[in-house]
Amino acid sequence: EQKLAFIDSKNNDASEFSLCTKDGKTVYTAKLKDSVTDKVSGQSIRAADFSDFKTKGKYYIQAGSEKSFSFEIGERIYDEFFKKILQYFTYSRCGEEVKAGAWSHPACHTTEAEIYGSDKKKTVIGGWHDAGDYGRYVVAGTKAVMDLLLAYDSTKETFQDFDILSEVRFELEWLLQMQREDGAVYHKISCYNFCRFILPNEEKDAIVLSPVSTAATADFAGCLSFAVRFFKDTDKAFADKLLDAALKAQKYLDKNSDEYYTNPPEITTGGYGDHDVKDERYFALCGLYSATKDKKYLKAAVKLRKKKLYESYFWGCVTSYGTEILLNYSDLKGEDKLKKELEKAVIARAQALCELSQESSYRTAMKKVHWGSNGYVCDEAHILLLAYNITNEKKFYNAALSQVDYVLGCNPLNVCYVTGLGSEPIKKPHHRPSGAVKKVMPGMLAGGPSEGLQDEVAKEKLKGKSPLLCYIDHECSFSTNEVAIYWNSALVCAMAKLGLV
Ligand code: G3I
Ligand code: 9MR
Ligand code: ZN
User: Fold this and answer.
1) Ligand 1 atom 1: the closest Cα is on which residue?
2) Catalytic residues
3) Closest ligand relative to 268 C-alpha
4) pTM exceeding 0.90
5) What are the tens digits of pLDDT across the range 341-352?
């Protein structure tokens, strides 16, 4: 297994490094790799490669006068850590009492929701709160469900002591309530505005169902049709409900042109706007083909591909959920040309990511560092692992591993971006339950650096810094220090597919 550490050669002219046991005994020495300088870190970094050292134990790296945090080499070292990352979903449940230690609260958001633009109301209960806020967004929730189902399917034994299918079902039961009678899906449900840093049951403002959107309706169709396979043997009635809802959503999509979501003036919670929904429509068709084997969906999906879809798992560009469904969960007998085209597209994207990672000082696979960059690199790891699954080429696996290493500590700030874990844990995430009780909930992946400086604190404190340094552990920096269910789910998926858990 690849094992790398990173030394900033600006402050350290050592040419070699040592691996030392806790009591200071050197067990391995090697030369440092040549330095690499890139745009995102702006630093000149040398890698310490100790991949061929295999003895289990606790160690630290010494290079010149610099000493790393201690770390462990061994089997299943992430198990406890992984449980906390999964627990975040259960602790984020809306609409029911949550027993979560310091973050426990009675049921929240159980009042009827107003349907925006009408005088009607609808009761919609459940689902996970999105992130540091208490909104529930279909685009975000369906991504999180897809990541968790794909993680579960890649290493079922990993989830022996966490009932991931029940957790996912909790979100699916909520999603089913987000569908309008005509098959369209409401974009989100939230209060009209973000609340202060209070516990969710203390948010008593009116709740509103926002207008429907093509992105939400298509993500809904793709996600629910894919979920059918996980429930059809254990609860056929529920699986049928999922499929019926997905088919109804697809009928709406077939009959209606694109409806892009933007917040009406009275609603100021999160947007998840998206003005290119070809990828969502493609994802929906792939899910329905997989669930029904009806070639009309495959034909329509192939037609959409001709518009040059970009392989990605990002919340705003979900092509690869569709591609992965076709490659790994669909009957492609007699479709060799299509299969080759899909594989070629995935491998081309992964090859570019591999090269980008090799040229990056911390092996990160990103040119720009946007809001949610930590979730983004985990999504890129997912593409690399899909390519590894196709080609069995270790370079894809290693590049994916580097993305997880980066969010867990191999970064210019030497910080583990998951709350409550690592040698220097995050102290002030933008997360209302943690802020309300003044205790940080563990297991949440922070969004991480964002060069756009899109909150007041970032503007004030991070101006002029290199992109990977544009992070601040400050409760008000929502553009760098918020947490989100679909960043956690992307990390769960990458770690599971890497076989780390
Ligand atoms: O894609 C463009 C890129 O082409 C352009 O170069 C760049 C310039 O800054 O912007 C990019 O768009 C960014 C977009 O995310 C896609 O990455 C926007 O700047 C950026 O503002 C946008 O951030 C989103 C943020 O909401 C604000 O809309 C995050 O992805 C998204 O994760 C975040 O989601 C919020 C919810 O709204 C509310 N709940 C919390 C959640 C997490 O913070
Ligand atoms: O808490 C909100 C966070 O979930 C969103 O991602 C972010 C951007 O939409 O907005 C946060 O809410 C802030 C609002 O945008 C501006 N006033 C302060 C709010 C709390 O930080
Ligand atoms: Zn709630």
Assistant:
1) 370
2) 133, 430, 473, 482
3) 2
4) yes
5) 999 999 999 999
